[in-house]
Amino acid sequence: MKTRTKPLAALCLLAAIGAAVTLAAQTAPSPQQAVDAAFAKYKALQEGKNADYIPALAKVDPNLFGIAVVTADGKVYTAGDVKTEVSIQSISKVFTMAQVIQEQGLDSIEKRIGVDATGARFNSIIAIEGVKVVVGTGAPEMNALVNPGAISSTSMVLGSNADAIWGKIIGFHNDAAGRPLTVLQAKTIACRTFPSSDCQTITPMACRRENQRPSFTWRTTTMRLD
To answer: Tens of pLDDT along 55-99?
Structure first.
């Protein structure tokens, strides 16, 4: 009897597990149901406010709210305001980083720029001057999602000249959006204090007001989904 009860018990256990898995599969919400539930739960949330130091963000209707989930196999699930055109700002850093990884391999960003926190603000120039090497890896203590790292990842995009490189960058963004994007260009002036302290991107008038002086100028690009 003992030799028969063990297989029988195993079969019963397998049947119970199979029934539980089937029940879980039947009761688990679909991706669209999960997105709809999240939208319904948080659509009335009124915390926080728009960033007011960037005009393109300050003028956006704060009541807009949407969710989009894209799976690895390309399925899209959405809810709410997903057709509204918005400025993507620093989200562009992610796509440029992805472009470099696609061109040069998964470890290209890690070896050249780094994947560690800087311990400073996202727009800090001091983070460049004080960058350290991560022990054991030899990579910089930097990442492609802060301004210095994003500038570096942009410089890694391959091309025969500046126009070719820019064409690849905007082309990659267009492909990701599934349509051509509008690009707004402006000059940005960085100013820094002497002796050195943390730096930020502000206007020449603000530099003078804070007894600082402009140190250099470069072109920044703001992409809008329109």
So the answer is: 888 989 999 999 999 998 989 999 999 988 888 888 999 999 999
Beta strands in 64-210 (DSSP E): 66-70, 76-80, 182-192, 200-201
Beta strands in the chain (DSSP E): 66-70, 76-80, 182-192, 200-201, 213-224
Which residues, 6 or more positions from 199, have their beta carbon under 8 angstroms from its beta carbon? 123, 124, 125, 126, 190, 191, 192, 193, 215
CA nearest to 169, candidates 85, 68, 87, 98: 98
Q: Are 207 and 191 in contact (CB under 8 A)?
A: yes
- Delineate the domains of the chain, giving CATH numbers in brackets: 28-84 (no CATH), 91-224 (3.40.710.10)
- Burial class of 216 by CB neighbour count within 10 A (0 to 12, 13 to 18, 19+): exposed
Instruction: Please state, in angstroms and rounded to a whole number, the distance separating the CA atoms of residues 124 and 150.
Output: 12
* N-term to C-term CA, the chain: 75
Residue 196, token pair as written in the block: 């050195």
